[in-house]
Each structure stands twice: as C-alpha cells, then as structure tokens.
Amino acid sequence: MNEKEAWDFIKGFDKSDLNNLLFDEFNVNYNTLEPIFRQGSCLLKTVVEDVVKYTDNGAPIKRHRRKIIPVHSKKIAGKRFWNEHILLLKELGGFIEEINNVTPEYVRSFEFDSKLMPSTWIVVRIDGCHFHIFSEVHEFVKPNDDRALNLMNLCAVAVLEKFWEDIVFAYGVSDEYSFIIKKTCNLYQRRANKMVSAIVSFFTSTYVMRWNEFFPQSELKYPPSFDGRAVCYPSTEILRDYLSWRQVDCHINNQYNSCFWKLVASGKSKREAQNSLKGG
Questions:
Q1: Tell me, what DSSP letter sits at residue 66?
Q2: Is the peptide bond before 143 cis (omega within 30 degrees of 0)?
Q3: Per-residue pLDDT tens for 215-266?
Q4: In this structure, are residues 161 and 154 in contact, taking their beta carbons and an 8 Å threshold?
Q5: Counting Cβ atoms within 10 Å, is residue 274 exposed (0-12), middle (13-18) or buried (19+)?
Q6: Which of 25, 33, 72, 154 lies at a 20 to 30 A Cα distance from 39?
C-alpha cells in the first residue's frame, strides 16, 4: 500500500477506529506511545536553585536561576494541569469549570488576517536585529565586510528564486534587504503576516546554512535574527521614492561609517571619533 492508498483507506475513520486499527493490525497500543508524540510539548518558565560553587570548607553556595522545562499533559487546558503549575494560575488565572469540546471555527474567529491592499506594490523589508553586536562578535571588517555583504546578497538571491513569480527585484544594503513584490501578486492571499514571516524565515535559514561559504575560518557563534515589515505603495512613482530613500540612506550611513572607522584606526577612541564627527 502506497502513501495515497493509506490515506484513502483511513479516510472517515474516527479516533476509536484508528486505535483499533493500530492494535488489531500492528499490535500498537496508541495510549502507550511517547507523550511528546500524542500530546505535544508545553514549555513552562520556572526558577530553580542551583549549586554554583562550594566554599573552602565544602559548604554549597546556591543561587536562583531561570529555567524552562518541557511538560507533557493529556489536557493542557484542564483544571488539574492548571492547578499543578502555579505560574499558569498566577499569569493566566484559574477557572472553575472544565473546558468542554471547542470547535475550531470558534477559535479561528479570533484570528486577525491583515490583508494588504490590492493592486499596490508590496515592499517587504527585512532588517538585522542587533546586528552591530552580531558583527562585533563575529569580527566583521569595518566599515564594510564584503564577505558579510555577499552573504546577504546570496540570501536575497535565494529568496528571489523561491518566490520567482511574485518578487520583481530586490535592493539591499548593510543588514537590510527590500523585496519588491508585484502589484498583481496573490501570494498567501496577500496576507501580510504570512508573506513577511515566509520571506524572513527563509532568508534567515539561508544565512545560517550558507555561513561557512563566506566565513570558513569563523564559527557561527549564535544565529542571526531579522525582523520584517510589509508596506504597500500605490504607484510606481512612490515606489521609486522609497528606493531612492533607501539608497540615500545607504550613502549617508556608509560615508559616516567610513570616516568613523578611519578615525578609530588613526588612534582615536570610539567616543572621540563620534565627537569629532559631531563637531564636538
């Protein structure tokens, strides 16, 4: 039986039918499968007391530290689970009655779908989060590191290839990239959250996967993160204004950074270099 035949075979089965099939045909008791498979994982924040060191006479010195623990429960929205974890009661409050069966339609009714205006250019711009720290930790060449810039370019190329039918072109500088998406695009039904998250997550994963190609001698000490936003521009003229603004910003920032790092290389401290550029 192939995969399609298997799906067709169990179509219409209820929970009891599926349990019986597993047990009768394969001698598998579903209820004994690992909880992580059947119930998912709930991550809870807690504070634990750890021994950090010992005194000269052997007495332990303890400190409180934050810890996140995985928990598995048959009913994470149940009264018993809630009462077993004080944090949930404290942060979310308790309840008197058990929760009955909830319809998916009811829960989905609270979701907010922010759809972008039709027949407008969409620009999805991603920016590195705290990239000045990331660049220092990974010892990027100042003011510009062509390895880092070419890695950004490669990630943008990967995004264009993945969304070939929807993205017209892209413009990037430093730790940001703007992706210009067609007016007629209906990617994810123009839902902003889906569009932005898909592009940002794919860009970020590509950055991590391809890091060694550009920094073969430098270990990636921690993964980068990028945020993103989507903005609609109703006309080509306004879109051109946007692109002009980003390129002017590129020039201004690069000119400042070039001067700043030349001053630092000449022996000035970073504060002195900043004051010199302020005219102070």
A1: E
A2: yes
A3: 999 999 999 999 999 999 999 999 999 999 999 999 999 998 899 888 888 8
A4: no
A5: middle
A6: 25
Tell me: the pLDDT tens digits for 54-98? Answer: 888 888 888 888 888 899 988 888 888 888 888 888 888 877 677
Domain boundaries, the chain: 3-33, 42-100, 121-233
Calpha distance 52→87 (Å, rounded) = 25
Between CA 207 and CA 156 the distance in angstroms is 9
Does domain 121-233 bear CATH number 3.40.50.720? no
CA 80/CA 92 separation, integer angstroms? 14
**Mind listing the pLDDT tens digit for each residue in 136-158?**
999 999 999 999 999 999 999 99
Are the CB atoms for 257 and 174 separated by under 8 Å?
Answer: no
Of 203, 196, 212, whose CA–CA distance to 155 is shortest? 203
Total length of the chain: 280
CB 206 within 8 A of CB 158: yes
Pair 144, 254: CB distance under 8 Å:
yes
pLDDT digits (tens, 9 = 90+) for 159-190: 999 999 999 999 999 999 999 999 999 999 99
Side-chain-side CA neighbours of 113 within 13 Å: the count stands at 8
Q: Which contiguous run of DSSP H or E holds residue 176? A: strand 176-181
